[in-house]
Description:
Elements: H1 5-29, E1 37-44, E2 55-58, E3 61-70, E4 79-86, E5 97-101, E6 108-112, H2 136-160, H3 163-214, H4 216-253, H5 255-281
Parallel strand pairs: 2-6
Antiparallel strand pairs: 1-4, 2-3, 3-4, 5-6
Amino acid sequence: MEYKSSELKAGIFIIISVIIFIAFLVIIIGANKWEEKDYYRTQFDYVGGVEKGSLVRYAGLEVGRVANLYLPEENSSGVEILLEIKKGTPIHSDSRAFITTIGLLGAFYIEITSGTIHAPLLKPGELIPSQNVTAFAQMTGSATKITDELSELLSRFNDILNDENRKNINKMITALTDMSESSTSNLDTVVKNLNAITLNLNQTVTAINNLLAMNDSSITESVKGLENLVTETNEIVSNLNKIVNSVDYHIVQNSDSYGEMMIHLNSLIRNLEIFSQSIKEQPWNLVRKSPLPERKLP
């Protein structure tokens, strides 16, 4: 069966169109779609702007996409994200995943830091530690709140600075100015007095230095005399210590004799007490050798 030239041209055109369409799809989808992928997990408390298909970068290089997002489970407070990453990407245990944007108004994506060389590599399916970064929208909300508070503060400040308060402030500033001027004159007087006192002190110190210089030899001799006196005093104290030690030694050595002496002294004192008592009762014993005869009763 023979084909007309117009039919052949139409067939060639269709084939070329299909080839161009396939090439266009490859460009749109990306040739890396058919590359081998590894899957990792990460969690964030806030994922505003990140959705399925968002870019995943490793140290700034595009390495994959967000495969899926999962709502928090009962025992979890963060949103879990499944990352589809190019196979062989070296993700270390100290790598961190965080959400950022390209510029201030660019699309949100997930950035993964490279970590350190010595840290072990994470296996596919493991959890990449995350770092929550405040999003620009959140910062905008905080900035709006701060702006409102500042506006209210300025409004209250304007209420405080009304005409009456301004007049009072002007009066206070005037009073402070007058006080400062009077204080300045007083300070000048005080400074002059201090200068005079300082001059007198300098003269006194100079006189004392001259006096010390003139009597330097006398002071030196006095110091030497004091040193000799201290030496002699030390010798006297040393001799006294020796005497005290000698007395202590003799007391210890003659403690038995001292005990006997004390016993004899006690006995002597007792005999003297008996003798004095007998003299008091019979004083005639001092004069007569024999006692008086007893009187006979009638």
